[in-house]
Specification:
The protein has 355 residues and is mainly alpha-helical. It has 13 helices and no strands. The longest helix is centred in the first third of the chain and has 34 residues.
Length: 355
């Protein structure tokens, strides 16, 4: 089975952009209202590029997660898939809720002179819980389709998933879900019904897309620039006419255009093996779990210092990236029990296995 390096790169890039996005929230005038440490001087203009990212960054991760399950099920039975995803997703989520999220909440409380209170909440880890629930929902569906109905797509049926038809199917689903759930802010995916069902649709779509084989990806080679051009036009319309909050139809259309265009770019240019990718792909989720602690710590140390907001933004972002990767390399990979809690294999275990 050929490994899809472009999909690995997408996961790495999307999680890297998450850190940039979260850093930018600290420089918005409303950052403290959603639990971030906020700098006194705002960089309001940052929200324009961040809004371009937010409409596709989280949905594309759900697509990628569904694709990952399809690849995983090819070499695992359903029980093995359940156990493997429990180890890699549920255990890190539970550990994060108990130990990681309260830690950065403590930093926030100390910075704002609040009472130090231990709080159990999902925080930024809501994404892991959503993915795990999608796996639980998908397992019985896979079993029924494979073993009870014995469903197989014929070549004629697969032709109905050529570009641009599959684009229309996914976009129609995104639009319908937006109108059904009526989100106040379209891109507020965290802990919302719109975010949950949009993620489920993206997850299932990613799973099914891999099952279509080359027909989907060959179509993207032809259509990718059209999707990206349409997405850029829709973004400009959103900025110029709707103050970043365009109607559900346009938001959904823009989201899927970005996603399909980016899939096409990564498939054509980044489906290549590299040592950097091998390392970063394994580090992505542990870094995602830990980054908020280092972001809050860096913010609490840098924001009171007298320097321009742009310099603070750059410094906080660099500290968050470097500290998260250092923690992964020197703590998570080196201490077996910590490795288990973050859902990765430690280098100690790997060395003993290889010997």
């Amino acid at each position: 089975m050929e490994r899809r390096y472009d999909i690995d790169w997408l996961r790495v890039v999307a999680i890297g952009l998450l850190i940039v996005y979260h850093t930018a929230i600290g420089f918005q005038p409303w950052g403290v209202l959603i639990g971030f440490i906020q700098n006194n001087d705002s960089l309001v203009w940052l929200w324009y590029p961040m809004s371009l990212l937010s409409i596709w960054r989280i949905p594309i991760l759900f697509f990628v997660s569904g694709m990952g399950v399809h690849f995983a099920i090819r070499k695992r039975n359903l029980l093995q898939l359940f156990l493997e995803r429990t180890k890699r997703i549920l255990i890190p989520f539970l550990f994060g809720v108990v130990a990681i999220v309260p830690l950065h909440v403590f930093i926030w409380q100390k910075y704002y002179n609040q009472d130090m209170t231990y709080i159990l909440e999902k925080g930024h880890l809501w994404f892991l819980l959503n993915i795990y629930s999608y796996v639980l929902l998908l397992i019985p569906i896979i079993y029924i389709l494979r073993n009870v109905i014995k469903l197989r797509l014929s070549d004629k049926m697969i032709t109905y998933f050529k570009q641009p038809w599959i684009f229309l199917y996914v976009t129609t689903g995104f639009i319908a879900l937006a109108y059904i759930t009526q989100p106040e802010i379209y891109t507020f995916y965290a802990i919302s019904w719109h975010g949950y069902f949009m993620g489920l649709l993206a997850f299932l779509s990613g799973y099914l897309i891999i099952g279509l084989g080359d027909i989907f990806w060959k179509g993207l080679r032809i259509w990718k620039w059209s999707y990206l051009f349409a997405a850029a036009v829709l973004y400009v319309i959103r900025v110029c006419y709707y103050d970043l909050n365009s109607p559900y139809v346009l938001m959904s259309l823009e989201s899927v255009c970005w996603i399909f265009g980016i899939f096409g770019i990564f498939y054509q240019y980044l489906n290549k093996k590299s040592k950097a990718l091998a390392y970063l792909s394994k580090a992505a989720y542990p870094v995602y779990i830990m980054h908020m602690v280092f972001l809050y710590l860096a913010s609490s140390l840098i924001f009171p210092v007298a320097m321009t907001a742009v310099v603070k933004f750059a410094i906080v972002m660099m500290i968050t990236f470097s500290a998260s990767l250092a923690f992964y390399e020197f703590i998570i990979l080196r201490i077996p029990i910590i490795s288990v809690l973050f859902g990765v294999r430690s280098t100690i275990k790997q060395h003993s296995h290889n010997s």
